[in-house]
Amino acid sequence: MSVLVYIDTISGNISKNAMEAVFYGSKIGPVTVVTNGGVSADKLASLGNFGATKVLVQRALQSQDASQLTRLVSATAGTTGATTIVFSQDLTGRAVAPRVSASLKAGLVAGAVSLPDAGGIFKVNVFSGKAFGNVKVNSAIRVVNLTPNSIALETGSGSAAVEEISVDCGAPSYTVKSVEKQEGDILLPEAETVVSAGRGLKGPENWGMVEDLAKTLGAATACSRPVADIGWRPHHEHVGQTGLAIRPNLYIAAGISGAIQHLAGVNGSKVIVVINTDPEAPFFKAADYGIIGDAFDILPKLNEEIKKLKAQN
Amino acid sequence: MKLLVCISKAPDTTSKIDFVENNTKFNEAGVQYIVNPYDEWYALVRALELKEALGGTVTTITVGGIDDEPVIRKALAIGADESVRINGNAKDAYYTAFQIADYAKKGGFDIIFTGKETINYNGSQVGGMIAELVGMPYISLASKLDVNGTTAIIHKEMTGGVEVVEVNLPFVISAAKGMAEQRIPNMRGIMAARTKPLQVVEPVAVDELVSFVNFDLPKAKSACKYIDPANVAELVHLLHTEAKVI
Ligand SMILES: Cc1cc2nc3c(=O)[nH]c(=O)nc-3n(C[C@H](O)[C@H](O)[C@H](O)COP(=O)(O)OP(=O)(O)OC[C@H]3O[C@@H](n4cnc5c(N)ncnc54)[C@H](O)[C@@H]3O)c2cc1C
After folding, report:
1. What is the nearest CA distance from B103 to chain A, expressed in angstroms?
2. Does domain A3-164 fall into CATH 3.40.50.620?
3. What pLDDT digit, counting tens, does each position of A188-206 carry?
């Protein structure tokens, strides 16, 4: 059962999502990776650490154009004889995997959170994290869009053979005019630790304590929907049913009530800490650890205590 | 300009999620259906704004049974001109996309809108599949869309930022937060919606590429451990030694 894994390396780096997709694929069968752009051959060879045997790279394709990537992946699936094609369900996976699925008439497992069981059944996220669906693929080839942070990475040792390829990907379907980079270097969708705050913080001027704690923890920052809607925080920080769904190892929520729509986006987190002045706040029902207290008092103390811990270790 | 907006129904966000018939079917008892928020708030409203500014028509399309008509009427009440319902059971994303693509190929649409995802299946699948089936560019997760003659300027989310891209019409776009603001239908809209055209089209035959075997609910969380607000050090200790997350 040959596996093809597409990874997005356009930033020049191998993201954690990409490592996870390769490692996941290697648990199904021998993995060939396909990617595009200028990422160094050394970095690509290091994917052997996650189980890749071979990496195909199309140097000439320098953008993440969904039409062209569909040609790249569909063609390499043909030449490698892959029966399983894996993507990370990040922004590129969301754009390209459905096109590849329709192009090859191959069933798409969207948002997989598990490997297939012995009967070929995958678990996927449905109802915005409130339930799981068990999905079976009826076509000969299957496409899997893997939910980030749903497999525990193990790093082995190995080096993959890197080969440059040249597939006819057709003309670009759009032109990129400019790129606006977001601030901060820890991206929320990939973050292992997230510090999040809601309307309980009273105003955007009070986010310093959230950012300080996030900095100490090496965490990304997030917020509830009203906070993004009123412009206290940027939209890309909004988590929940109508925002980003995340699955960090640790989610710290301060001054967020824990409405069902908020929980939908964060209840895949491994550990949840809730800080709220209201003992009746619904978030405590979804929490592992809770402090009934004032975020203005607790967040700075938490920051100090974590600094102490870090200093000891 | 001819605009086509894909509309899906979704259970109200406060719905209790459980399953019946040996966990093979979503329990619809007492569930209120709404227009999927991404379809309504962002895709439909932006399509209406473009029509208001540049002229044209807004058609909505839904794959579903007669039970879907109340949410279709809601879309008409918000301002769509006409609706199409493909009278099929949207079993998987490919089936849904295939029906919409089949209709869209005959319609000469300039822009086909979908929402970022539905809040019940969260697949983000249909838009990309339609684009492939009709052979159009696909711009996914767009937070801003402006049309100028035969081209559009779109802000699309990328990992760690936003890309501004230019694309020629026609294309398929999936709408994310930021593209427009929710509109509440007024009484006149609701009245008008009753008499707007809602065409029912029979589906074409398509293979089911994936099937849901059954569903499970996440394991119940164990009770929250409360920590004294005067003892934040205890929390840090537990996160370090018990949960092992810091
Ligand atoms: C269709 C739909 C979709 C939605 N999607 C989302 C979504 O994706 N994400 C989302 O977040 N919301 C979503 N919502 C909104 C959601 O229902 C809630 O309104 C929202 O999450 C509340 O945000 P909040 O907790 O920040 O604010 P509030 O509900 O106002 O809660 C503030 C909390 O802060 C506490 N507090 C106050 N002062 C302090 C203090 N000094 N220290 C500590 N705690 C304090 C209060 O006790 C309270 O619990 C959606 C709603 C609908 C209808």
Report:
1. 16
2. yes
3. 988 999 999 999 999 999 9
